[in-house]
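Note to self: keep these together.
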Amino acid sequence: MIIGIGIDAVELHRIEDIIDNNPKFITRVLTENEHNMFKNLKKKRQVEFLGGRFACKEAFSKAYGTGIGKVGFQDIEVLAEESGQPIVHQSIFNGRVHVSITHTDKEAFAQIILEQ
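Structure:
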């Protein structure tokens, strides 16, 4: 049974500005494992990666019904399967979490479905 659905979009130029001007934001949003993945990427992919993870965490908080605040960025970890498919590796939700991330040159989008 579906418990919640969340979606979020992020403008990538804003993420690029954050990477350049507010590096503390990166460690606030990304878990240690996500940050290790982030560090190994080239700049363009870093922007897409951070934008996608940020959108995932916002979408998760919407699907969970609380918004960011009661659910923190560090409460959700989005890693990748060997194939590259994103997977929610840890979260505060005890059911199944489905995730999809996509991006254009200008925006990143994420959708989360919580299933019990």
